[in-house]
């Protein structure tokens, strides 16, 4: 790591525009810092991969449940339309016009008929 003296010594070079390119700057790490950085990188990479797998699983589950809900809704709509048709038919039977009404001539008035 750079100490304060190293940073101060580099200031004139930076101000003069003689700064090396970023890709050419060498960084020195201790073995422990290198191991820690490597471990962290692997940890976050596997965590990311698990999150992606979980996301794909949840998306697939959501798709399946949406399809099942659509099928169930279609079945329920079919049942509802059948029930409504039956209700209409029964209401027509009970409250609709009667097709077999007897005419007035067919009825025998009971008051005019002599009793034997």
Please provide a brief summary of the model.
The chain is mainly alpha-helical.
Task: Walk me through the structure.
The protein has 116 residues and is mainly alpha-helical. The protein has one domain. The protein is 66% helix and 0% strand. It has helices spanning 4-15, 31-95.
Overall domain count: 1
What is the overall shape? rod-shaped
Total strand count, please? Answer: 0
Report the mean per-residue pLDDT as an integer: 84
Radius of gyration: 45 Å
- Terminal CA distance reads 134 Å
Main beta-sheet strand count, sense and barrel state: none
Q: Helical amount among residues, as a percent range?
A: 55-70%
Q: Tell me the structural class.
A: mainly alpha
* Portion in beta strands: under 5%
Order of helices and strands: HH
| Helix count, DSSP H or I runs of 4 or more residues | 2
Low-confidence stretches: none
SSE diagram, text form:
Blueprint: H1 4-15, H2 31-95
Identify the notable features of this structure and list them briefly.
mainly alpha; 116 residues
